[in-house]
Amino acid sequence: MLLWRQFVMEWKLYLRDRGATFWTFAFPVILLLGFGFMFREGAGPMTTLVWVTEGGGHAEDAALTKALTHVKILKLDSVEAQHRWAKGETAAQLESSAQGHRLRVNSYLMAQGQTAAQMVQQANLVVQAQAKGLQPEVIPISVESPGGRRNAGYGAFLLPGLLGVNLLSIGLFGVGMVNVAYREKGKFRRLGVTPLPKWIFLLGQILQRLTVSLAQASFMVLVARLALNIRNQGSYPEFFLAILMGTAAFMAMGFALSTFTKTLEGYSALSNVVFLPLMILSGVYFTLDAAPLWIQKVLLALPLAPYVKALRGIFNDGAHLWNHAAGLALVMAWGLVCFFIAVKRFRWN
Amino acid sequence: MTGYALKVRGLRKQYPKVLAVDGVDMEVRCGEVFGLLGPNGAGKTTTLEIIEGLTEPDAGEIEILGFDLRTQGREIRSRIGVQLQSTSLFNKITPREALELYGGYYPKRRSAQELLERVQLIDKADAYHTTLSGGQQQRLALALALVNDPELVFLDEPTTGLDPQARRSLWDIVRSMKQEGRTVILTTHYMDEAEALCDRLAIMDHGRILTTGTPSELIAQMGLPSVVELFFEGAAPDAAAFTAQSGLAVDRRGDRWELAVTDPKTTLPSILDSAEACRVPFEQIHMRRATLEDVFLHRTGRSLRE
Question: A92 lies in a domain?
């Protein structure tokens, strides 16, 4: 009864705190929708290739044009092309004349420029082969996930990552920072002179945060389904169980971290030192595949990266919890270590 | 209930840099308003926090309402009401909700409505805590201290930082607590507050209780019931010659001399004679009854506000 009352009061106070509700509910959804729409499959602009022909161009230009796919061709005269290039808007430029072809790639737009250049190279090889009477075959590519099922699109990639970051922020800010503030401002002292057992207060807080994270995850999944047609490829019980496990582990982190500083200022600095690198480097917004192997290993030993990986496996690939047992065990081990640190070091005043 | 609401023996608390409480003994009778008077840093708050169970003492025995603090903390906590120096509540809680929430922690509770009326917060009953003025927050803190209908109430500097009107209204609430038969223990560094509210007082400095008694006893104990003050334009001059002439001790304080005297009727003429003889250039002379401030000054050599 006492516990229920604490729990209800925590929810009331939480809902009145517009900042907290914005950051946990609205902000991740805005990110998801924003990036989801921007980078949805087929939505992005096709890479533009500027094509300049001099003196009637090359003999095989017509064949090359036909062979070039997946690239938007913009034909310009050399003056216009030079103007566009100078403004830095051109990623790749193809120049054809009677003598042959030349490709320029903008060093600042390597990602698009390099891709366009590769397309041109490939088309050119096809044209040359055809000129020799050959019919070259391109090897077909199919994109699949390790689990066999797949959620397409960047929105689907992002969703589990954002959920992971959100749990981390509930832990570090919703629990850790809140308790540092309570201690610093004497709320714990006021409770200390009442007969309320303090564990009831903390348990009420913990249960409220667990329900916040479940509500928030459900909300995100619902919005993703309705707005971006992203579906959970795995089972919902396993997905929500993973959410609860993450919430518990990251709350323990928040509690542990809150024992290392007495002031709110100290805690802000400390928590951001933990939060920002984890958020940026845990494969939330982009994959870590391009990073050196040792960095990937280090990051996968920290709690957020394996957690996001597991959540992504369940939600996007239809994997089971036990397919990610090692990663989840690591996350829970972090949670347990933090829990013991918190229990050992936690002070009410 | 008769007897003692609080008995404290041999209380000590050492902090890394200061000995905050240095052997405090104290007894408070049921139904009285007891004041701990002393300057900032005297150890009043630490003493109170130890008694409230918030701070562990290094040594000492504490009996509250007949219960031992070490073994029966929970019984004690459900029978006492506490207003801490800075009462911190959740920002977005309303007075009514706070009273209901905290009331729920106790086996015995008073209705929120009644308490809100009592501290005149009905108008603000459903406003967020952050929107209350300093005086209103302090009154809410008092209401919270009364939420369990306590036998013993602790008030730590209840009027610090309040304007005179808000102080008066708080004093009225404290007086009504006494009328309801509650024991009140309060700390203050305002001597007028101590004189106005307290049945008995303990004067504290450097972690020790210097003296205990009713306000009039304390003044009488000093043996110097009157103070003669000589005011100067600018800083008060050296008084060595005057003291040699008159045989009276002078306390130089800023723009005045203060002379504590037992019998002003006979002493006053000799003060005037000596001042004349030594050509003391005073502007005004003023005589008043000694106050608790003088008691404190007399005991410690410094003023309460220093």
Answer: yes
Indicate the residue of A2, A16, A193 with minimum beta-carbon distance to B54: A193
> Would A136 be classed as within a structural domain?
no
Total structural domains in chain A?
A: 2
Mutate to test the interface with A, among B105, B109, B147 (most CBs of A within 10 A): B105
The share of chain B scoring above pLDDT 70, in percent, equals 97
Give the range of the structural domain holding residue A338, as residue numbers without chain letter: 2-39+152-345
- Confirm if B4 and B170 have CB atoms less than 8 A apart: no
Q: Among B93, B101, B128, whose Cβ lies nearest the Cβ of A5?
A: B101
Domains and CATH numbers, chain B: 4-219 (3.40.50.300), 226-289 (3.30.70.2470)
Q: What is the mean pLDDT of chain B?
A: 88
Q: Is residue A17 part of a domain?
A: yes
Closest alpha carbon within chain B to A200: B105
- On the question of pLDDT at A144 being above 80, the answer is no
Torsion over CA: B240, B246, B247, B249 (sign)? negative
Answer whether A195 sits within 8 Å of B93, measured CB to CB. no
Tell me what pLDDT residue A326 has. 93
**What is the rounded CA–CA span in Å between residue B138 and residue B85?**
9
pLDDT score of A255? 92
In a domain, A66, yes or no: yes
Task: Identify whether residues A168 and A253 lie together within a single domain.
Answer: yes
- Helix runs in A106-263, H state only: 110-131, 154-169, 178-184, 187-192, 198-228, 236-258
At A302 the pLDDT is 92
Q: What average pLDDT does chain A have? A: 88
**Which residue in B53, B101, B128 is closest to A193 by CB distance?**
B53
Do residues A219 and A171 both lie within one domain? yes
B77 HSE (CA, 13 A, CB side): 23
Question: What pLDDT score does A151 carry?
Answer: 65
Q: Is residue B44 helix, strand or coil? A: helix
In a shared domain, residues A194 and A334: yes
Q: Which residue is closest to A348 within chain B, CA to CA?
A: B54
Residue in chain A closest to B84 (alpha carbons) equals: A190
Optimal mutation site among A194, A201, A208, interface B, most CBs of chain B within 10 A: A194
Q: In this complex, which of B74, B86, B92 lies closest to A16 when CB atoms are compared?
A: B92
